[in-house]
Structures are given as structure tokens and as C-alpha cells.
Recover the amino acids of this structure.
């Protein structure tokens, strides 16, 4: 018998850029966080001995897809504009938090790598922002979650700390 029922709600996914929550996400996939390199590299010798080397590259690419009408486009564009005037990308902390689920991504050192292409049509278009994150950490914690239910249907609230 199952003793746990997890839940996911896209409304409970939060993205913070420099401590400011983004809003106006597109439908379907609206956030993608991906490590830029493999966690480890395997080396196989001529006689089949296998060794493993930990890859120290802890950089990630975060792709955020917003509706064209999202106010968050203005915020992210302001960081691009600042980059053009000071000739150095503003270094921003970035967090992706699934309050309902089990995952947290955190980087204290990130910048906007690519601004979106702009297309216009008779429908709602999207803007895809690419953020490069250094020193990223992705945490999955079975004790993290805002609202979970146990088998009796009771709401179980748990906390998460790093």
C-alpha cells in the first residue's frame, strides 16, 4: 500500500532573478535547467580497465520561456541594456524553485547569455531567454514540498534548507 501521494502544480514553480520573481510564463515547457557537461567522464584503457574522472564543470544553461506580454521581459531586457552600457554582464543570482515538488536549482553567479528573438503574429508569441549559470547546484530532496498529502489525505507541510 502506498503511503505517500506527491503533487505538482506549475503555478508553484518560481524563478527568481536577482531576488525578483519572474511572471508571465508561456504554456507547456516554460523553464529548462540543463547542466552543460556530463557529471563524470569514463576512460577505458586498452585492456578494458575503466576509470572515472569527475567533471568539475558546474555550469548550467537555464532557458526561460515567457509570453510576449510578460512584464518580466522588461526586467530581463534591462539587464541586457546594462550589459551594453557597462561592457560587462551584470552578475545575478538565479533560483528555480518547485514549491510543490522536490527540486531547487541555485546559482549565485549567472548572467543573460542570449536575448530572445522577437516574432509577432496574430496569436500570442513567446520570448526565450537563455541564462548562463556558474557554480550551479541542483537539489532534489524527498523532504521538500509545500503541500503534500499522506495516505489519510492530511496535508503534510515540510521545510527545505541547504
Amino acid at each position: 500500500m502506498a503511503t505517500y501521494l506527491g503533487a505538482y502544480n506549475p503555478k508553484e514553480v518560481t524563478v527568481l532573478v536577482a531576488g525578483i520573481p519572474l511572471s508571465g510564463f508561456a504554456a507547456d515547457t516554460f523553464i529548462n535547467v540543463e547542466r552543460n557537461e556530463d557529471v563524470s567522464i569514463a576512460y577505458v584503457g586498452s585492456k578494458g580497465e575503466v576509470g572515472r574522472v569527475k567533471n568539475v564543470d558546474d555550469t548550467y544553461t537555464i532557458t526561460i520561456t515567457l509570453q510576449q506580454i510578460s512584464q518580466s521581459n522588461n526586467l530581463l531586457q534591462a539587464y541586457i541594456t546594462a550589459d551594453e552600457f557597462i561592457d560587462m554582464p551584470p552578475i545575478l543570482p538565479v533560483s528555480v524553485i518547485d514549491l510543490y515538488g522536490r527540486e531547487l536549482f541555485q546559482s549565485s553567479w549567472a548572467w543573460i547569455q542570449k536575448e530572445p528573438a522577437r516574432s509577432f503574429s496574430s496569436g500570442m508569441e513567446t520570448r526565450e531567454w537563455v541564462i548562463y549559470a556558474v557554480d550551479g547546484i541542483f537539489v532534489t530532496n524527498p523532504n521538500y514540498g509545500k503541500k503534500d498529502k499522506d495516505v489519510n489525505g492530511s496535508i503534510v507541510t515540510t521545510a527545505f534548507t541547504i
Observations:
- The chain is about 10% helix and 45% strand.
- The longest strand covers residues 103-114.
- The chain has one domain: 4-36+43-156.
